[in-house]
């Protein structure tokens, strides 16, 4: 089973990388087909992780990173169908980045749900944050692409559309986490370091929405988007991975 998990992770990663390359060289149709292949492989990976863990595989960082491509496929389809934005390459690149992280982490074969995770809030809380973080990663890619000459405003407008889709998910993740904390630990907020960084991330994106309509603050848009994404990296990766940082959320490592 462990060999199958590594093979599926590597295969999904290769499909995501191929989709990213196809978006640049061959066009969106080939990129979409390859991202669909990555999605199917990631579905198999989710099933394999669930079978090995004997639980919903969302309880550690490797599990969550493996889930990213499953969330990004439908998000890419939604942006194309409902927002008329062809962003398959960016969604594939975000998925590839997550799978690279998953391959670099050890496989925790004996993982079990601790009592705090045995809650009906578990799946919706994690799913909303995975979708939000994945979408914000795509927005960060688009923000970086906006430095290109000739397409800067188009890329930045696309980034804005992605952030507008992600922000309600980010808000739900923050609120559901507080409700879950009250049920599990008897309080909505404990000023835990991960909670603080999650709130800071939310506030930075809220600030982006406040300055975005004002021409006087047009030069702030790119720095704010990149700064907010840096806060996501700290919240999701740094706080979880640095052993010297103590957190109530250390089970997510």
UniProtKB/TrEMBL annotation:
Pfam families: Cytochrom_C_asm (PF01578). It is found in: Membrane. Keywords: Cytochrome c-type biogenesis, Membrane, Signal, Transmembrane, Transmembrane helix. The keyword Membrane applies. GO terms for molecular function: heme binding. GO terms for cellular component: plasma membrane. One of its GO terms (biological process) is cytochrome complex assembly. The keyword Ligase does not apply. Residues 1-23 form the signal peptide. Residues 37-244 form the Cytochrome c assembly protein domain. The chain crosses the membrane at residues 33-52, 87-109, 129-147, 159-181, 193-211, 223-243. It is a multi-pass membrane protein. This is Cytochrome c biogenesis protein CcsA. The gene is ccsA.
């Amino acid at each position: 089973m462990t060999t199958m998990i590594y093979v599926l992770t590597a295969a999904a990663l290769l499909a995501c990388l191929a989709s990213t390359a196809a978006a640049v060289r061959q066009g969106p149709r080939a990129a979409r087909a390859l991202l669909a292949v990555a999605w199917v492989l990631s579905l198999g990976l989710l099933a394999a992780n669930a079978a090995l863990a004997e639980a919903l595989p969302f309880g550690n960082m490797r599990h969550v990173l493996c889930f990213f491509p499953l969330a990004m496929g439908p998000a890419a389809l939604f942006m194309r169908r409902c927002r008329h934005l062809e962003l398959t390459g960016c969604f594939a690149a975000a998925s590839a980045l997550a799978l690279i992280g998953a391959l670099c982490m050890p496989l925790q074969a004996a993982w079990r749900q601790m009592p705090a995770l045995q809650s009906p809030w578990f799946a919706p809380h994690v799913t909303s944050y995975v979708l939000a973080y994945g979408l914000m990663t795509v927005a960060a890619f688009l923000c970086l692409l906006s430095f290109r000459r000739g397409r800067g405003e188009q890329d930045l407008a696309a980034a804005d559309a992605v952030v507008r889709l992600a922000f309600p998910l980010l808000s739900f993740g923050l609120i559901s986490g507080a409700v879950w904390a009250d049920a599990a630990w008897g309080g909505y907020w404990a000023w835990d370091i991960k909670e603080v960084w999650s709130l800071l991330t939310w506030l930075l994106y809220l600030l982006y929405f406040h300055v975005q309509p004002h021409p006087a603050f047009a030069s702030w848009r790119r720095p704010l988007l990149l700064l907010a994404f840096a806060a996501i990296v700290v919240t999701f990766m740094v706080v979880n991975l640095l052993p010297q940082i103590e957190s109530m959320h250390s089970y997510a490592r």
